[in-house]
Amino acid sequence: MQIYMVGGAVRDALLGLPVKDRDWVVVGATPEAMAAQGFTPVGKDFPVFLHPETREEHALARTERKTARGYKGFAVHAAPDVTLEQDLARRDLTLNALAVAREHCRPDGGFDPAQVVDPYQGRRDLEQRILRHVTPAFREDPVRILRVARFSARFTDFQVAPETLALMGEMVEDGEVDHLVPERVWQELSRGLMEARPSRMLEVLRVCGALKRLLPEVDRLWGVPQPAEHHPEVDTGVHLMLVLDLAAELNAPLPVRYACLGHDLGKGTTPADVLPRHLGHEGRSARLLQGISERLRVPVDCRELGEVVAREHGNIHASGKLNAEAVLRLLERCDALRKPERFSQALLACTCDARGRGVAGDGLRDRPYPQATRLQGALHAALALPTHDIATQAMAQGLKGPEVGRRIHAARVRAIEQALATMQMA
Ligand SMILES: Nc1ccn([C@@H]2O[C@H](COP(=O)(O)OP(=O)(O)OP(=O)(O)O)[C@@H](O)[C@H]2O)c(=O)n1
Ligand SMILES: [Mg+2]
Q1: Could you tell me if residue 133 is inside a domain?
Q2: Are residues 250 and 337 in the same domain?
């Protein structure tokens, strides 16, 4: 048997990027031969094995043939006679269809670039910064549409080859993305959101038509105007892209990026006669985002933050004028006292929303967002109160449940009032 390192590890090493996990392909072996060498089988759908020591994945060389729609609809042919070239041919992109024989891989993961097996000009495409499909077998797995979009968000100076974009468009036309399982869609979307330029993922998905099928609520935002005095970029889709890229620049965690994705969905359903204003879009955003969260089985931390930000971002932006009583109400609506960390994330999403606007060079992206500091200070003051002592004292004075609650509430309002006054002076 012959063992080759393949896929992302070869690509990333050639790009000079750190290599995280290594995948291997085994040519000329049978499952029995693998077992005899101490490999453990793990693949459910494919013959994949774990190396006895490194636990790295080793897959038998295989070809795949499409048998039906969707992610599960293909037959796998893995046999000792499948060649390396055949295995590389069924892979998604030329830059992922590179291989290096194990004997040429150094223990540190490095290798001599001259040893790279490259039957599909992957290295040329790497140098020219092109994401290009290997063969028409690309069609066999519609998840690859999402992968190309995600790689565009990661490799920010790469372009999708026109013929690959055209093929992706055909696949969308043929209904291929309509049958993807929600878990796979979320897996790829969430990874793409975590890349350096999430806007590039949306752009690729939009251009090939996949966004309209997967996230029509998001796709609709392009072409929807906003008032130019608050949004010099005008287009809501453009605003969304600026917000997401700023979230990435600020290293925001996934729930924040998901909240950014969802915060303005309601602007897509604003009646035409009130445009470009979007009064009350927040409530519509929250409902639309809830639909996406359910459809894609989005994890609960993303779901909850997304809903809070969708519903409250307008109030948070306008919170500079609120008095202590109203600030406390806002904190309570966000459940900030019980979930202060989630509230910090909401403020980060709002910061991205406030600064993710404008046109090149207008400086809006660097403007301060004092609302976040002010609300954070107010929350801090409310949390610092010894509520337990206040309650004990109130009960010692004979006060009952709701009255004790009012006592605590009043104390919180006073604490916030003081904090706001101090911040005003600073
Ligand atoms: N839908 C898919 C998934 C994977 N692959 C192939 O399997 C390799 C390994 O897959 P994976 O680890 O998912 O992707 P990587 O390219 O390694 O990228 P990442 O850095 O995101 O792991 C890819 O390089 C590609 O050759 C593919 O052709 N089609
Ligand atoms: Mg990988």
Answers
A1: no
A2: yes
Tokens of 342: 């989630």
Same domain, 55 and 102: yes
- Pick out the residues of the known binding site for ATP: 8, 11, 91, 147, 150
- 75 alpha carbon to ligand 1 midpoint, in Å? 18
311 and 251, same domain (yes or no): yes
- In tens, the pLDDT along 258-297 reads 999 999 999 999 999 999 999 999 999 999 999 999 999 9
> From ligand 1's centre to the CA of 6, what distance in Å?
9
80 within a domain of the structure (yes/no): yes
Q: Tell me: cis bond preceding 276? Omega within 30 of 0 counts.
A: yes
Question: Which of 92, 139, 180, 194 should be mutated for ligand 1, with most atoms under 8 A from CB?
Answer: 92
For residues 259 and 372, what is the distance between their CA atoms, to the nearest angstrom?
16
Q: Which atom of ligand 1 is nearest to the CA of 88?
A: 26
Q: Whose CA is nearest to atom 13 of ligand 1?
A: 8
Ligand 1 contact, 57 CB (< 6 A): no
Ligand 1 near 235 CB (within 6 A): no
Output the CA 7–ligand 2 centroid distance in Å: 7
Report yes or no on 137 lying in a domain: no
Task: Look at residue 17 and tell me if it is in a domain.
Answer: yes
- Give the count of domains, the chain: 4
Ligand 1 atom 24: residue of nearest CA: 7
pTM: 0.94
The model's pLDDT over 177-234, given as tens digits with 9 standing for 90+, comes to: 998 999 999 999 999 999 999 999 999 999 999 999 999 999 999 999 999 999 999 9
Query: How much is the ipTM here?
Result: 0.98
My answer on whether 208 and 224 are in the same domain is no
User: What is the predicted pLDDT for the residue at 64?
Assistant: 76
Q: How far is the CA of 144 from the centre of ligand 1 (A)?
A: 9
Query: Which among 245, 228, 224, 244 has a CA at the least distance from the CA of 236?
Result: 224
* DSSP H or E stretch at residue 62: strand 62-66
Alpha helices in 45-193 (DSSP H): 84-89, 122-128, 143-154, 162-173, 182-193
Tell me the residue range of the domain where 300 lies: 220-238+246-370
Is 227 found in the same domain as 209?
no
Please say which residue of 127, 161, 185 terminates a domain: 127
Co-location of 164 and 120 in the same domain: no
- Whether 73 shows a pLDDT value over 90: the answer reads no
